Each structure stands twice: as structure tokens, then as C-alpha cells.
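Glycosyltransferase 87 family protein
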Amino acid sequence: MTRERVREPVVRPTRRDEVAAAGSEVLGGPVGRWARPGGGPLTPVRVIALVALGMFLLGMVQKIPCYDWAWFRGAGSQYAHACYSDIPHLYAGRGFADGLIPYFDRLTGDMEYLEYPVLTGLFMQVAAWLTLPAGGEVMHREQIYWLVNAGMLMACTAVLVVCVARTHRRRPWDALLVALAPALALTATINWDLLAVALTGAATLMWSRGRALAFGLLLGLATAAKLYPVLLLGPLLLLCWRAGKWREAGAALLGAVGAWLVVNVPVMLLAPEGWKKFYTFSQERSVDFGSLWLVISQRTGENLDVESVNLAAIVLMLLACAGIAALALAAPRRPRFAQLAFLVVAAFVLTNKVYSPQYVLWLIPLAALARPRWRDFLIWQGCEVMYFAGIWLYLLYTTTDSKQGLPAEGYQLAVALHLLGTAYLCAVVVRDVLRPDRDEVRRDGSDDPSGGVLDGAPDVFARGRSVAGPDGYAAGPDERRPDRGAPAG
């Protein structure tokens, strides 16, 4: 007897989300009852990828004043137009214009070596190799370097949104939150964070497909590009503990450690001083923009001791992780992987001693998977856009004699908006964990679409009958899943 696999219907947010339905009026209104999305060449994934690339290009357009002249006319102009980017400045400032090799060649000035993780350094070096001389002028080469990096980061954006769209099989349209995120367009080319974000998105996709080793390998590569992805191992291990999936947890951990070592060990052995610069710089860095610690320092008028702030930030992060662990193990139903992943990265953002504007990129894909509701997502994005404007206006005020821009008190308000917006999104995610019936993803009875082997797995901590059925699905009140394998014939 054969079993026929019935394709699961795609969840249509315009029929379940009031904000999405209202926004769809621009394109003709919510999808109709008899619509068959994905039947033609414009599948959901392709539409989302095109939208993301369009938003990325809009972000590049927003940088035109800097590209044309503001990067080269002093700090005030690039802050006034909110188009600052590290990329062109570090082309010369970190020796790429002079042909220096990251980690191996010593730099002049206070920064002795490149202060980025190894895989990001390789990304920067490849872009430098692709940057052809233009008349021998460094200014022109900085522009070309930014364009080359923008093209490479655009590819990372496409990878990211495709991975997010495919992570939840029935919810590809959730990735439209990522594609249309205003903070992504504004911050995509400030720095190189999208490399790590794309690798983390690919790792999450692999985990949703049950490929634990591939997840670990990609997460290890992401951690070799930026430190934050390693935080995702904590939620994964907690959920595997609750599901009794120790083999998969071990494979993920082994893959992550192995991939990180493969990338880092050669540089660690051949250029140890250059390799450790990222880690020593992170420890020695003073309280910086966007953090709660900067607000405390400015409000009290005290220069906070770096070691004391490091210790306090670590303690607060450990306390937050302990709270997330308690939530993961005590929740009435095993939380979804994306929910805990978002919470732990958000905790790091909130407690860290620096918050650069592009750090929002870390959270955008995790937020779309953890809480795919347009209202909450846009509230948070509004706070982040206000912070994006606030930091440049504050820098304009502090770096020019005209005192135009935002004074310290106004900037502190912008920081508070960022902190409160992120805390608000954390609060609604925690509520979803404690009240699974309020979870948008589980409204139709799904268990954990991004959880891979965790999706529908038995809950060894369950005190009573599991909410989900043996296949991870319990039919919800508003949308029933089709038969997943009725005997044929």
C-alpha cells in the first residue's frame, strides 16, 4: 500500500494579519479565496528575493550623497546626510589600499592589526582584490571598494531572504518582513555584518531540514565572521535536552567547533598577534554608542571603567541566559527554536557595551521567524529607524562647530527608543512562549517549523499530554491541515 504526500497550503498573511491585509491594498487587496500563489514564475520565494534586492538598491541610493562627495569632505557632511559607511574609510585605514595582508602585516597608527574576525577579514580582502585602480586616486578606489562590497553584500541579502523564506515551509511570506525591513535597507552597507547574518540564515535553514551537522558547519563559519552566531547553540542545546535529541545536538556542536577551527587555526598559528586583535579589541573597547552603559555614563557624568563594564555586562548576559534557560525548560510547551534564538541574541544586544546601527541586522531574520506579526515588527523597526537617525544627528552635533543636530539628551532618548523597542519585541515573544495559543506560527496547530528534528518530537519534560500530535500538528480552530498521508486506494 502506498501513501500519497499531499502538499501543505501556504499560509497567507493577508488573511490572518490585519496590518498585512491593509498594506496589501496598495497591490489590489488581500489574496482571494481561489488564488493559487506560486503557480507561475513569480513564486513567493522569487517575489521576496526581488523585493529584498529592490530595498537593498534603495539603501544604496540613500548613500549617494556620501558616494559623490560627503565621505571625502569631513565627518559632518556624511552625518548630515545619514549615509556614513565604514567600508570606504577602512579601505585606506586598514591597509587594503596599500596592499597589506590582514592579520599578517602590521598597520600604522593606534590600530596595529585588523580588528575583525578572520572570515570577515577574508571577505574584505577579496573585495580589495576585486577593486581595480581608477586613475591612481585613493578617493576613486574607495568608491569602487564600496561598490564591490555592496555587490557582495547584495548577494548575502539574497541568500538571507531565500533561506528565511524556505525555513518555514508553509510560511514563506514571513520572509517579506526581512525583505521590507527599513533598517535592513539603511544599514546593509555600513559594515560587513550581512556576511555573518546570511550564514546564520543558511544554518537555520539547514536545522529546519533536520541537517544538524550542516547547521553546525554553517554556524561555525558564521561565528568565524562575527561572534554573535555562537549564541544560537545555547537555545539549540536546551531544546534538544527537552526533546531528548542528544545525537543531533552533538552533531551541531561538533560541526560548529570544527568549522570555526578550520577557518581560524591557520591564521592563529601563522599570525597570532593579528588573529587575537579582534578579541583583545572587544575586551579593551570603552563604552560606546547605542548602549545602556553610554546613557549611564552621560547621565552620571562618570567615565565608566572598562573592566567594570565588561564584568557587569557579562553578569547581566548570564542572568538573561539563565532566565531564557528557565523559560525554555519550564514553558508549558517546548518553545520554538526561532523564539529562543531571538531572545538570546536580543539579550546580548541589550547588555553589550556597544550597539552599532548595523547590529539590527542580527535580529531582523530571527524576529521574522520568532514573531511574524507585522504590527509588532513595524513598531520595533520604527524604533530602530529613529535610532539610526539619532546617532548620525548626535555625531553631527558633536563633530561640528555649528552645533546642528542632536545634543546628548536627544541622543539618549534615541538610545532609549532602541532599547525599549527591542525589549517590547522580547516581551511579546516571551508571552507567546508562555501562551502557545497566542503564537502566530502555532495558530494552525504547527509545532516548530524551524525546529528540524524538534518539530513534533516528544517532550520529555511534558507534565501531561502533549499539545502537539505525534507528527507535531494539532488542528487549530481557524485553519485545518490537509491529510498528510491517507492510504491510497
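thats it. The two ends are 8 Å apart (CA to CA). Residues 1-6, 463-489 have pLDDT under 50 and may be disordered. bye
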